[in-house]
Design a protein that fits this description.
By secondary structure, this protein is α+β, with helices and mostly antiparallel strands. The chain has helices at 24-31, 47-50, 129-133, 156-169, 177-190, 273-281, 327-338, 350-354, 390-403; strands at 10-11, 39-41, 55-63, 69-77, 99-105, 111-118, 136-138, 141-145, 151-154, 202-211, 224-233, 244-249, 286-290, 298-301, 305-310, 313-317, 342-346, 358-363, 367-376, 379-382, 414-417, 421-428, 431-439, 456-457. The strands form 3 sheets. Strands 1, 5, 6, 7, 8, 9, 10, 11, 21 and 24 form a 10-stranded mixed β-sheet that branches. Strands 12, 13, 14, 15, 16, 17, 18, 19 and 20 form a 9-stranded mixed β-sheet that branches.
């Protein structure tokens, strides 16, 4: 294994976060002018790291009092070249990128030693908990590139908290909120060239938590893996902001009371595939599911929450254990309230749905998707002249402007990665040991003693 990498701070304020720190004494010895001799010269990064780098640099040759030799490369951030993609025709599908993130949980229940590694297949035991008993969760969030070149994440802490809630339900340990967010940051940075240009799409981020340990009896797995991969994506529905057409499913159900429908388990989505495939074969965009008890109250679409609009009232099914607590759903409710709408979270009947002024769906992938028609028991009801209602259009515009950094974030929901930074890389024998992000005005001799260690498999 070779070591290499870089980490920049995603921040709400000019502070940096660190995953791991080496012993302070070692750092003091390394960076102290009294114990190190510096020979300043301009030179490229070591070849093995240079192949993955997009930074102009110069370096110091250093030695410390234990006789070890180090090279310190001080690198100014440069604009990365974009991946060779037709950004104007970007769909919603898996596209292999450069790196993924992996972190394992040992027997003590603590996650540690996370690392970036080349994107690729993973190895699992045939007896792993995820393969045999479906013990796994997933999340979804996006990174956007702003017009100023900076990168933006939208409410990643909410994804971390939802994963913790789901992990507790299916007896898994989970990364802390800080571990989750820092892992997302590192993965986004490592795959920066795959982030679509502004207005062309987003970088979809897929964190996974799975029982990777071998287990034969029905029980929690003995080991867990937290994994993050990313893919550049366009619109989830080919229609984009154009209206989608839904059909109400009356026989099959996505979730039942007391089950796991309210957490983002991997198995939840297998339950929608049959009805969804049949609906798409008939020309519908997706399926709207009803509650399994009364069969007359709305639950959700296959991978989206649903809202109805009647006048100034917006109603959506309440979260009561069978409906996923969508982060986009939560954000839309807050945005709607801030704009003067009345919002109710409660049971919503089919009759109310069919009598609504407009209907829309929300989700990480779709953001806001207006519904053009609903078909129930063979009867089709259309909404508006073109299916794109005033309210859904207004909420979509507001939320996407926040997500893409086009509007002032008064909600404090976004994490902005300021790309105007530099990095310090400390090498020994051509292998990167430590990396530290700092302001462009920082001097090497005055670096804080907080240096992050990142392992990357090339």
């Amino acid at each position: 294994m070779e070591s290499g990498g870089a980490l920049a701070g995603l921040h709400r304020n000019p502070t940096f976060h660190h995953l791991l720190r080496p012993p302070r004494t070692a750092v003091n010895n390394l960076l102290s002018s009294s114990s190190s001799t510096y020979k300043r010269h301009f030179s490229p990064l070591p070849l093995k790291f240079q192949k993955q780098s997009h930074f102009a640099s110069y370096s110091y040759n250093c030695s410390i009092n234990d006789g070890s030799a180090f090279q310190v490369a001080y690198s100014a951030s440069a604009t990365q070249s974009l991946a060779n993609i037709d950004w104007d025709n970007l769909g919603f599908g898996v596209m292999p990128t450069d790196y993924m993130y992996s972190m394992k949980c040992s027997q003590d229940g603590n996650f540690s030693k996370g690392e970036l590694q080349r994107f690729g297949n993973i190895e699992l035991s045939p007896a792993s908990g995820i393969l045999n008993y479906g013990q796994g969760l997933f999340e979804g969030l996006k990174a956007y590139k702003r017009h100023d070149g900076n990168i933006l994440l939208f409410r990643p802490e909410e994804n971390a908290l939802r994963m913790k809630m789901g992990a507790e339900r299916i007896c898994m340990p989970s990364p802390s909120v800080e571990q989750f967010v820092e892992a997302v940051k590192a993965t986004v940075l490592a795959n920066e060239r795959w982030i679509p240009p502004p207005g062309k799409g987003s970088l979809y981020i897929r964190p996974l938590l799975m029982g990777s340990g071998a287990i034969l009896g029905v029980a929690p797995a003995p080991e867990y893996t937290f994994l993050i991969y990313v893919s550049p994506v366009g619109n989830y529905f080919k229609e984009g902001m154009a209206p989608i057409n839904l059909v109400i499913e009356t026989e099959m159900h996505r979730a039942t009371p007391g089950g796991t429908g309210g957490v983002k388990t991997i198995g939840n989505y297998a339950a929608v595939l049959k009805a969804q495939s049949a609906a798409k074969a008939k020309g519908y965009s997706d399926v709207l599911y009803l509650d399994s008890v009364n069969k007359r109250y709305l639950e959700e679409v296959s991978s989206c929450n649903v809202f109805i609009v009647k006048g100034n009232l917006i109603a959506t099914p309440a979260i009561k254990g069978t409906i996923l607590p969508g982060i986009t759903r939560k954000s839309i409710i807050d945005v709607a309230l801030s704009q003067g709408f009345q919002v109710e979270e409660r049971q919503v009947s089919v009759d109310e749905l069919l009598d609504a002024d407009e209907v829309f769906c929300t989700g990480t992938a779709v953001v806001v998707s207006p519904v053009g028609s609903i078909t129930h028991l063979g009867k089709r009801v259309s909404y508006g002249s073109d299916g794109v209602g005033r309210v859904s259009k207004q909420l979509y515009s507001t939320l996407t402007s926040l997500q893409m950094g086009l509007a002032t974030d008064n909600m404090n929901w976004t994490l902005v990665w300021d790309c105007g930074i530099a990095f310090v890389y400390i090498f020994t024998n051509q292998d990167l040991l430590f990396a530290r992000s700092l302001n462009m005005s920082s001097n090497l001799e005055t670096l804080p003693m907080e240096i992050v260690k990142i392992n990357i498999l090339f």
